[in-house]
Amino acid sequence: MSFLPVGLTHYLVVAAALFSIGLFGVVTRRNAVAVLLSVELILNSANINFVAFSHFMPGSMSGNIFAMFVVILAAAEAAVGLSIVLVIYKTFSHINVDDVSELRE
Amino acid sequence: MTAYDLTFYGVSAIVLCSALAVVIMPNVVRAAFMLIVTFFGVAILYVLLSADFLAAVQVIVYIGGILVMVLFAIMLTLRQGEKSFITPAKSPLTLVLAGGLSLAVFGLLFKIIRTAPWKVAAQAPEPSATTAKIGELLLTRYLLPFEIVSVLLLMALIGAVVLIRKEVK
Prior knowledge:
A: mainly alpha, B: mainly alpha, 6 helices, 73% helix, 0% strand, globular
């Protein structure tokens, strides 16, 4: 892998780094909204991969279409996830994911 | 070094730095605003990959839709007179373990990316408009997934309303 010119692998490395950062956020964040933000980072990194493959394999648009479906699913996930966060807030008056462990006991 | 390469490296640096800020900043509101920068950077990466339609979708859906929703959620879960959007960080041991895990995952992915024999064109294709092609494919080859995903969006909408409505006795 050379640094220039920018090719498929460069985009894949950026997406992998974004995925790792999102993973770090999901594991370390305590605020439920912040965990959802990190999940969005991970979805975006997957999308970069889809679009990069679609671009560097001529004649194929499947990656673009799939990335669009991922965006739609992310919107649905955010809507349901945030409403779950609001319900957690109504029940516990906080949104600290570490302390929401009623089902474990 | 061409303008394309320069743009790629600059935008990638912005994307990764703002993403790091999103996961590190203790204030959730600031993290959400840093996420705007990340999403804009990813949209520019889509433009570099000649996916013009997806770049527009990224800006409209993510920045115009999801982030506004996130900011509303932060506002609604804010306790009066208390800075509940600043949550204490986890213990240093957890941070180190999580950092090690992320770095290990990144190392693994990097090794795979470097060694895998990608069957791609030697020369990147000329950029062309994708909107017309996507529209055509959505109404022919991908018609069924398109319809299913619209039903799923409706389900998510109704599900969200059912989850947060007030109980009526």
